[in-house]
Amino acid sequence: MNPVTLLYFGDLMARLQIGRESLRLPMSVKDVAGLMKLLAMRGGDWQAAFGQPRATMRITINKQDASLDAVLQGGDEVAFIESVSL
Fold first, then answer.
1. Domain ranges of the chain
2. Residue 62 in contact with residue 77, Cβ under 8 Å?
């Protein structure tokens, strides 16, 4: 799969110290929930940010609101937006 672009906004960006990255997903990651599990495996602040879905986090794929079961495709732009502290 082609890489996806990940964008982090709000308090999430400040906490993780990153605003954007390109990530080639393993074949096992098919949806947003799988992506979040993969990110949580980085540990530390990543585990806190992505280990449990929260109503305070908004997720978009290609600038359209997305749910945890939204399917990912190579080239997608996935944004995680959170404006309350973790």
1. 4-82
2. yes
